[in-house]
Amino acid sequence: MRSKFDRQLAKLHDMLIEMGAMVEKAITFAIHALVQQDEAMAKRAIAFDTEIDQMEKDIESMCLKLILQQQPVAKDLRLISAALKMITDMERIGDQASDISEIAIYLIGETYVRKLDHIPQMAAATAKMVTDSIEAYVKMDLELAQRVIEYDDIVDGLFDSVRNDLVEQIQENKANGPQAIDLIMIAKYFERIGDHATNIAEWVVFSITGKHGKP
User: Among 120, 146, 113, which Cα is nearest to 213's?
Assistant: First the structure.
């Protein structure tokens, strides 16, 4: 009986890794679309949102089957409960990558008022946070989960830099305002993605320690 449960739990881990990879690709496609003004890539990121939504439903179904059919012990129940919470955050990241891509499509053909340095750094940082948080869950790595949580401060700092730079652009020339606001919105979406990745890491902490939040 236990061996069957372990096999199903391993399958759950594989599904979470797959969903995490989808989310990472959605972020990567979205930032590529923005920087390169690539409409096809933006549409790929938007299309990924549907696949991520379906993956959330599949994992949710898997988790409920494990709870109802296998009668997991307390530690296993924490793992499954954490997975249910994590997929909600991953689904929301997919939504935000799609939102970023929609703005990127709107901005195609415009010359950017500011060189896009910090926003791609935010994208790379948040994608890494998602990947590391899933890895921490699968490996039950409390230290890695803690690093993800701490890394959110870097993303917040990058957001502050983007916002300050773009506010300065608006002050210098009001004509820069509409695009600057769109870029600030994109940066805000990436900041939220970092928050969701932090939430995932905090649920990893819960799955290991039974306590939600920072170790």
Answer: 146
Decide: 148 and 201 in contact? Cβ < 8 Å: yes
Q: Which token pair is 56?
A: 């959330």
Three-state DSSP class for residue 206: helix
Contact 129, 154 (CB under 8 A): no
**Structural fold of domain 2-209:** Methane Monooxygenase Hydroxylase; Chain G, domain 1 (1.20.58)
Q: What is the pLDDT of residue 14?
A: 92
Q: Helix, strand or coil for residue 26?
A: helix
For 72, phi then psi, to 5°, come to -65, 150
* Residue 108: DSSP 8-state: T
Give the tokens for residue 158: 């990058």
CA distance 129 to 149: 8
pLDDT digit string, tens, across residues 3-24: 788 888 899 999 999 999 999 9
What is the spatial distance between Cα 78 and Cα 109, in angstroms, rounded to a whole number? 49
- Segment 92-131, tens digit of pLDDT: 999 999 999 999 999 999 999 888 889 999 999 999 999 9
> Which residues, at least 6 apart from 120, have a Cβ–Cβ distance to it below 8 Å?
31, 35
Tokens 């990558």 label which residue?
97
